[in-house]
What we know:
Elements: E1 7-11, H1 16-27, E2 31-36, E3 55-59, E4 72-75, H2 82-87, H3 89-110, E5 113-119, H4 146-166, E6 170-175, E7 178-179, H5 190-199, E8 204-207, E9 213-215, E10 217-218, H6 219-231, E11 238-240, E12 245-247, H7 248-259, E13 265-268, H8 283-289, H9 297-312
Parallel strand pairs: 1-2, 1-4, 2-3, 4-5, 5-6, 6-11, 7-10, 8-13
Antiparallel strand pairs: 9-12
The protein binds nicotinamide-adenine-dinucleotide and uridine-5'-diphosphate (UDP).
Residues 81-82, 177, 188-190, 193, 205-207, 212, 214, 248, 270-271, 274 line the site of uridine-5'-diphosphate.
Amino acid sequence: MPAYLPRNLVTGGAGFLGSHLIDRLMKKGEEVICLDNYLTGRKANIEQWVHHPNFELIRHDVTDPIKLEVDRIWHLACPASPFHYQTNPIKTAKTSFMGTYNMLGLARRVKARLLMASTSEVYGNPELHPQPETYNGCVNPTGVRACYDEGKRIAESLCFDYKRMHGSEVRIARIFNTYGPRMLPNDGRVVGNFIVQALKHKPLTIYGNGLQTRSFCYVDDLVEGLIKLMNGSHSAPVNLGNPTELTIQQLAEKIRDQINPSLKFVKMSLREDDPIQRQPDIKLAREELGWEPKINLDEGLTPTISYFRDSISP
Ligand code: NAD
Ligand code: UDP
């Protein structure tokens, strides 16, 4: 009998994380349907697979239902950068709720397992540090980030209600700041901003006093975590991120020093509701998935800088 190959649906598959995930699934010889509305994704991210017999590409918006026959749903569709998700916040909230609702409905009909890409933003501006999965968060429900933060929180609730009511198989990844090749150069996220500014010999824009912290995970590590989570049996939320925390000032210095140590910094006002500190507690991922990140920031920045250099050169 031929080996069984799972049929995967990757929503948001033309985006940053989705396209790296698709690379991994395709290289394993699995079947992949990539579904995307190209809001922040690009065909160029998955063009290497377009003519492959195991690959299919569908232009579709997850806020509309769709019927497909699949075994696994990797539900990543949603803009991720604050600039993009705040550009049309109502659509962001709709994508989180309706998109997850439609994908859970599909998963139920075809008895597929669904992994939802949630976020560290469910913790909001955390009072507990580092953040374990048991922390319920501190989110401003009416702030400018709420469309995304609350959107992901209701998406998690939906997953659990499908699990309780219908026995759906769900996996929830709480993803912390992730970076790497294929991020859009103009999406406003900090790693891309700093690298592009440095490559263009411009000052690096630090919002606020630069003492706010983040913990940055390289994309390959993150994708490995998603795969382990999907394949495993743990159905409660799991933090996926790199626990090495640094201030935004330290990040700016690191990137400046790798590209052009003579560059200056310029201080700008802090964005509304910008979380002050963020670091994942990954004890659960270590214990349940046997996963932890392996690529440190210096190693991950090298291919990321090369990618941005290529993508902004004329
Ligand atoms: P991205 O913006 O690069 O990718 C999102 C993809 O979803 C894009 O291809 C976009 O076109 C598509 N999309 C958006 N709305 C859609 C809709 N209504 N219908 C169909 N497709 C739609 O972002 P990313 O960084 O790859 O993030 C992927 C997922 O991971 C998102 O759900 C995001 O919330 C989550 N996440 C990412 C990070 C991170 O640091 N990258 C952190 C936490 C959570
Ligand atoms: N940030 C910054 N300069 C920039 C872009 C972002 O200082 O040019 C800061 C931002 O205020 C935040 C951190 O970097 O504290 C991470 O921002 P990003 O938008 O990448 O992600 P998020 O806030 O969603 O974690």
